[in-house]
Amino acid sequence: MQPPDSPDAPRFAPPLSGAPSREELRARLRALALSEPPRELAVGACCYEVASNDETEDHLCPTCGARTTYPRFTVEFVREARARLREVRGLRVELDERGFCGRCSRGEPDRRLDLVLHLPGETAPRRVADVQPRDLVLLAEFLSGLAKHRDGHDESPLKDHLPRLRQLLGLEP
Ligand SMILES: [Zn+2]
Which of 60, 86, 135, 147 gives the lowest tally of CB atoms within 10 Å of its CB? Predict the structure, then answer.
């Protein structure tokens, strides 16, 4: 299987160069909506390793530095999201992990991961509540102009995910 971002991967648009404006993001959403879906899609076996429930690990809060103990798979979820976030290029994005922090939550953490986006020309950042690592993969693929979404070994047309992409960008029609 070719790497997701190889030069000959099918694209609906060229990769983003520089920070896009809202209008450019809207134009890009339109281009994806109007594009032909890719013809060949891989379907693979499920390949997730399931971490054992009794192992624990501390989540280290990037906001306040407090540690909160979780089953390991919960911390792996956050780690996966951080790794996927680094692949989002062209937009200023951050994760708000306070929902995983016992101190920032002041009580029972709701284990909610929020995405904070800074769009050019906007003073206030946008906030999208309750994101998954998969959402960050969608954003990275969209900004790279890739026509396919890759989920493990499974591929689907990126345009099938337009409603979620619009929510993630705060650009719903
Ligand atoms: Zn905290």
Answer: 86
